[in-house]
Amino acid sequence: MEFSREIRTDTASARGQVYGLLASVFRSEPDKEFLQELKGPRFAGAFASLEADFGKDFRQSTEEELRENLAIEFTRLFMGPGEHISPHESIFVDVDGDGGGLYGAKTVEVKKFIETTGLTYDDSFTGLPDHVSVELEFMSKLAGFESQKWDSGDDEAAKYCLSVQKMFAEKHLLKWIPEFCEQVIIEADLPFYREMARVTSEFVDFDYESIGASLN
């Protein structure tokens, strides 16, 4: 089935927004503005369609109470001190015996992949290239570029953007995001991160299948 250029433009834009949202969830503890956006009408329909239930505390707590509780949970899950879930691909994926440590072979692979596309890191960025938020943000940027290409009528460039997204998902996202999300689902105390992990895992898988269908 062939979709119109307008539908392809809007679809790529929407995909980019979802990836951007998910990147923000795992980048840092949520601030007041981000929580307001999550509770607003922009994402309400999307969360409802995904059957995401963040619990009554998310709906009923004041923004300050919610922000504080989620900040504690974020730190416990992803930063420590003590046992925590590392949000880095190199911790989850072994490459010829090189695994289990930060800035492993996969970190270098991700860095080279991103830089090959011509994208650069913000000057204030001090993290590692294989952080889950960086990989999701990278997909968000690629989907945004794809949307622009469809909109301008450059179908060849748009399809190339799609092929790069498919390759990145195959080589990186699908290799570790499901396991990472499963650990978050198991360890999370609050429904918010448990549900966000479920949504992330399901969306990455669904999006990969959708990209494949679009390229066929």
Plain-language structure description:
This protein has 216 residues and is mainly α. It has a single domain, classed as TorD-like, CATH 1.10.3480. It is built from ten helices and no strands. It is globular. The mean pLDDT is 89.
Produce the secondary structure layout.
Blueprint: H1 5-27, H2 32-39, H3 41-49, H4 56-60, H5 63-78, H6 89-92, H7 105-116, H8 132-152, H9 155-187, H10 191-215
Give a summary of the structure in a few sentences.
This protein has 216 residues and is mainly α. It is built from ten helices and no strands.
- Low-pLDDT segments, ≥5 res: none
- Tally of DSSP helical segments: 10
CATH top level? Mainly Alpha
* Average residue-wise pLDDT: 89
CATH architecture: Orthogonal Bundle
Shape: globular
Number of strand segments: 0
Main structural class: mainly alpha
SSE topology string: HHHHHHHHHH
CATH fold description: TorD-like
List keywords for this structure.
216 residues, mainly alpha, TorD-like, 10 helices
